[in-house]
Amino acid sequence: MSGSTFGLLFRVTNFGESHGPAIGCVIDGCPPGLELSEADIQPDLDRRRPGTSRHVTQRNEPDAVEILSGVYEGKTTGTPICLLIRNTDQRSKDYGNILDTFRPGHADYTYWRRYGLRDPRGGGRSSARLTAPMVAAGAVAKKWLQQRHGTTFAGWMTQLGDVVIPFEDEAQIPVNPFFAPAGEAKVAELEAYMDALRKSGDSVGARLKVVARGVPVGLGEPLFDKLDADIAHAMMGINAVKGVEIGDGFGVVTQRGSEHGDEMLPAGFASNHAGGVLGGLSTGQDLEVSIAIKPTSSIRLPKASVNRAGEPTTVETFGRHDPCVGIRATPIAEAMLALVVMDHVLRWRAQCADVALPVPPLAGQIAPQA
Amino acid sequence: MSGSTFGLLFRVTNFGESHGPAIGCVIDGCPPGLELSEADIQPDLDRRRPGTSRHVTQRNEPDAVEILSGVYEGKTTGTPICLLIRNTDQRSKDYGNILDTFRPGHADYTYWRRYGLRDPRGGGRSSARLTAPMVAAGAVAKKWLQQRHGTTFAGWMTQLGDVVIPFEDEAQIPVNPFFAPAGEAKVAELEAYMDALRKSGDSVGARLKVVARGVPVGLGEPLFDKLDADIAHAMMGINAVKGVEIGDGFGVVTQRGSEHGDEMLPAGFASNHAGGVLGGLSTGQDLEVSIAIKPTSSIRLPKASVNRAGEPTTVETFGRHDPCVGIRATPIAEAMLALVVMDHVLRWRAQCADVALPVPPLAGQIAPQA
Amino acid sequence: MSGSTFGLLFRVTNFGESHGPAIGCVIDGCPPGLELSEADIQPDLDRRRPGTSRHVTQRNEPDAVEILSGVYEGKTTGTPICLLIRNTDQRSKDYGNILDTFRPGHADYTYWRRYGLRDPRGGGRSSARLTAPMVAAGAVAKKWLQQRHGTTFAGWMTQLGDVVIPFEDEAQIPVNPFFAPAGEAKVAELEAYMDALRKSGDSVGARLKVVARGVPVGLGEPLFDKLDADIAHAMMGINAVKGVEIGDGFGVVTQRGSEHGDEMLPAGFASNHAGGVLGGLSTGQDLEVSIAIKPTSSIRLPKASVNRAGEPTTVETFGRHDPCVGIRATPIAEAMLALVVMDHVLRWRAQCADVALPVPPLAGQIAPQA
Amino acid sequence: MSGSTFGLLFRVTNFGESHGPAIGCVIDGCPPGLELSEADIQPDLDRRRPGTSRHVTQRNEPDAVEILSGVYEGKTTGTPICLLIRNTDQRSKDYGNILDTFRPGHADYTYWRRYGLRDPRGGGRSSARLTAPMVAAGAVAKKWLQQRHGTTFAGWMTQLGDVVIPFEDEAQIPVNPFFAPAGEAKVAELEAYMDALRKSGDSVGARLKVVARGVPVGLGEPLFDKLDADIAHAMMGINAVKGVEIGDGFGVVTQRGSEHGDEMLPAGFASNHAGGVLGGLSTGQDLEVSIAIKPTSSIRLPKASVNRAGEPTTVETFGRHDPCVGIRATPIAEAMLALVVMDHVLRWRAQCADVALPVPPLAGQIAPQA
To answer: Does residue B363 or residue C96 have the better pLDDT?
Structure first.
């Protein structure tokens, strides 16, 4: 795992730049025989796509995925799968005024210090656009996991800025632009909140939750490739994420052990404070992950900064930006979770495919299968 | 990075078992020429050691480290460094009653489902004792980083169960058994809290903070080996950790972009909401990391569970355990942070050693040097 | 390093298929600041290109490389470099008769047994065409190494079938289609040999040599990432290679130690039986590598085989093939050697950039520099 | 795979130094449930051991292996297996005269240039003694492979210096000190040859062959983790190896394609010029590997060299050394081959465990099984 490559066995190498001709990824290690076409991938890309509501960046990228290799007669061949997404809507001129300055909260300054160069073109490799190929790769993993183990993934927003979103109904998630599991009243509240925010030129953060259900029990490789450690790595690596929780997360600080430890009954686990991971391995319960997304750094309000010579200046960002990056992050977080689970299922197969236990897992759980 | 090996260039392979004859690690890739002896490593191990107060596990392990290889005439040779810590105080009999059951909140059940075997000996590879070799390796990294870049590491407890610990004075951290940066009054409060907890037979969680100062700017390798992603991976991989934050962490959810974005002035950054990482690279500001540690699962209060045949049973844990695992975790978290920073400094050297910028970093910052 | 990714720090991920729309690679970890354009890469691709003489496959692929990312204002940015080569001349129909059979000497049978699928399209991922992106990546490495350390690479054929090619003159290598360091007489002999071979419908093997000059001393990481081990890995991985030698190679079997050990004098090494590697590290002398390339398996002469049902059949291959694969392999072997050296220079920088020796290397040698 | 760690899924980290207190390895990723004890490992170590005949180094190391972790009640647990071999017979004083000089043919000079330090203690990490832990790890792999797939490994010497050893009888291999598959007459010839060599104070090289039988078909991961590429990497990484061949090796240079391509019949392959690998994947036929081992560089005859100041000097090596390193290398080469095959079987399981082909492999072949 290094730089642009994610995963050990289900390996995804991400390439391309936000304002180059195309972005994409190469998936190495996908099991052969999986039926796969662009139609399996496009829906998740559409969920992520900018321009789907007035609340997100007004940029019209169709994000149409093409499978360039690794599939023959509709099935994966086991050889690398190359997915390509062409960039169509690039407006370099929107970035003209930042050529020599560093935007507070952005990677401009850090990239410059590391590489000795200033590449101002819309974020380049720090752009959130590069999450699109990961969403595409995640869709491939999701399909295989769903077919092989019945594993499914879901995600939703739990808080947008000051507005807490109680969980009402999962069926509402695809119906509103916020991925909120909530009814009309809450959605209206969110819309009003966002409209006010946009007018102010400012931005705000968000809290999301992603879950995986039907996860085989026993995934994870201590000491350092524990399932939760790899999940944390994947989540914190998503642009703008500043916090990751598994299960009750920071809520465990005040919990007692008598309360936190999830009891086991023949009928299954009695609770899930652990969030589906114990000792770094999956318990078979739902994997529950929460992430904190910081407010967009590109805002219309001026911020103090310096230029390359170290002289003071001011920065105001124009152009197209998300007032709340978190609104589009749910499909990304789901995809990253799917990639981690996929990688760990393959790792399990490598080491433990012939482990046979005489008793099944607890009720409602799935044993991994080779 | 896989299983028992941590890091890409400063690679630490952890070996041994909690109740075996010894534990240790192999450090591969350490730069040559560093003056190193056991005396550089032992202090951090002592800080972590059980039996240093009545609030932690009463087990008397001297945790004396021995350097078996990789050092000649007092300096690292560049060849692998093997550090060994012999186990002296093992009481297998304390674990006799768990042979056939699974302790809620422990890795027993998950290990059994993955490996098809039940190894009841004191946690085996899931034991927190295996953090000792990482603390040892971290001490080596700390020394090199301090000599080469002036980087230093510190850590402290910010909350123990219900008791919030406001930051008073860093000099107090080594003076009390809680790694609390607080004076006598607060320490007395913590001691009383812990005494009551021990009597009750229960346990509680904790919140810790670790910081790195004098971190060179520009460390981290997008997309997937971002500095914060690797930090999250290292922290979440520590036993009992359920949440990780960088900078303001989950506090960013309600922040406005106008507030969150750290402004830059010729004199340096004006704030550090980012916690020292932007776009996945270090900004040169203090790296600030917080972690949530769950309450110990080994408590004297009975919990419902099942045995291997799936029949209901009860579990009470006797023997020696920490009523609050978080109390000893500070040196561990510091060590893991040091290992991540070390690995990234070496990665920086590989790719960017010849990058030369005409202007220095912002005031108070350090440029990495080859 | 796994599957489609080569290298640890200078990482090249190869993608695409022989008969797909394009092939290419992603280079991760390239140092920033290197001046790079397509003009730096195209010449090596042209050397490798099919259709440059009547002795190689008559297929007209321009193999024009495009830099899709990683370069800004003519210099590498330090972010991933994506190189694309579009396929233009694909004749699937030439492969129609092999749909259900397995060609002896080809990967057909082994791929089918591993993946459970038969993908007959011109070799797919087993095609030698996939060496083109590696040649492109190798050109990038060559440029950086040449600029930074004065390292250069060369290669030539030492034997074609039964015809031994004594070394006459390096300047002749680009002048004839065989990469032979020989004058007109020998070239004429080779041409006649090849014409006879083509008429017969058969094929023959070849022996090549590649050298690197001006290699910094001290590259290589024992135990398992020794420079020669990584070179062997890279060379044996080239299609059709069945043997690899360093220095005197199999000639060492009969050598005495009194003869083999290269003596050191203040003026430099007295000989180079070692081929530039000792103890797995570079000595600073020329790296000398030889490889054996097997005869093409695609010949017009019929061979016995089986089909997927296990029934006997015969196979004759029509279409466009190299009567001697070895003729085009020299640029490929050079490229792979450059990639290995590049990776090791970066590794050296990571671990040893601050090692300073008071005395210079032996005369004529280069010390690595950060 | 880096430095001291070998393999991707069956990972072996080698630690310790030739003249330190102990050497050993950590095996990560071993499947659980394998019955394992020291008795499974010791025989291969004994085969490798010095002091077993007058023809090898007179050093009395019992090389007794101890299993420190990873086994419970006689079976592997799936957690890391630590194998330890204590050094008992160390004579540092034998190396006193090389403190400031560099022995031609040894790694002394290259290590000094890389690390900036001169560690004269008997080779340190460049010593062939460090192959012992790999032999131990290889024994674990051999057992699992033999139980799971019926795979077996064998090795023998095919040439010692000028003396060619035709293959007569595999049963003779363990009977003579040369691992020669030959009868008394040839053995006597070899003994006389060696006696003369020892008297002369010189050394000579050797050629070995190792084979694996009952190898599942379809192992290997193109492009870069082809089975033959990984075999070459493992073999060339063995101390003193300068050449590696698969199948007919350099013999393919003069072969015609009509002869080289192994035909397939319902009864199986008709020949094995390929040596068991096609397109980088195993064919199911015997894996046949040959290696060239250079003559020992430590000889009693003086060689010209320089000291650290670059001044000319002479080097004669006293102490205990092998006059022909190749004599003990057979168990090492077998072990490395076993480790590569093991790693690839686990990789196969990860990606292809659910691939089901309706027809079995060719007669006499084994399909891999999860």
So the answer is: B363
> In this complex, which of A3, A21, A68 lies closest to C21 when CB atoms are compared?
A68
With contact defined as beta carbons under 8 Å apart, do B117 and B87 qualify? no
Indicate whether A54 pLDDT > 90: no
Helix, strand or coil, per DSSP, at residue C315: strand
Q: Which residues contact D171 (CB under 8 A, 6 or more apart)?
A: none
Ligand-binding site membership of B328 (annotated) = no
Q: Are A159 and B248 in contact (CB < 8 Å)?
A: no
Q: Which of A223-227, B197-201, C308-312, D178-182 has the lowest mean pLDDT?
A: C308-312
Partners of B65 in the β-ladder: B85
Rounded Cα distance between C44 and C63, Å, is: 10
In this structure, the strands spanning D22-28 and D11-16 are: antiparallel
Band of residue D226 on the pLDDT scale cut at 50, 70, 90: very high
- Bridge partners (DSSP) of residue C319 are none
d(CA A174, CA A154): 11
Q: How far is the alpha carbon of D350 from chain C, nearest alpha carbon, in Å?
A: 12
Q: Which residues pair with B82 in a beta bridge?
A: B26, B69
Query: What type of residue is A293?
Result: I
Q: Which residues pair with C35 in a beta bridge?
A: C75
Contact A295 B126 (CB under 8 A): no
Interface check for B272 against chain A (CB to CB < 8 A): the answer is no
The label of the residue with tokens 């032992």 reads B42
Q: Which residue has the higher pLDDT, C55 or A134?
A: A134
Which CA distances in Å does C142 have to B363, C34, C343, D357?
A: 38, 11, 11, 45
What pLDDT is stored for residue A34 in this prediction?
A: 95
- How far are the Cα atoms of B77, B89, C363 from residue C367, in angstroms, in the given order? 18, 51, 11
Mutate to test the interface with D, among B8, B26, B90 (most CBs of D within 10 A): B26
Q: Does C31 touch chain B (CB under 8 A)?
A: yes
For residue B6 the two structure tokens come to: 């941590």
d(CA C5, CA C17): 15
Average pLDDT over residues C232-241: 96
Return d(Cα D16, Cα D21) in angstroms, integer: 8
Find the residue in D nearest to A148 (Cα).
D354
Does residue A92 have a pLDDT over 60?
Answer: no
Give chains near A: 3+ CB pairs under 8 A. B, C, D
Q: How many CB atoms within 10 Å of residue A360?
A: 11
The whole-angstrom separation of Cα A112 and Cα B283 is 11
Single-letter code of the amino acid located at A308: R
Cα–Cα nearest to C311, from A319, B136, D266: D266
SS3 state at B12: strand
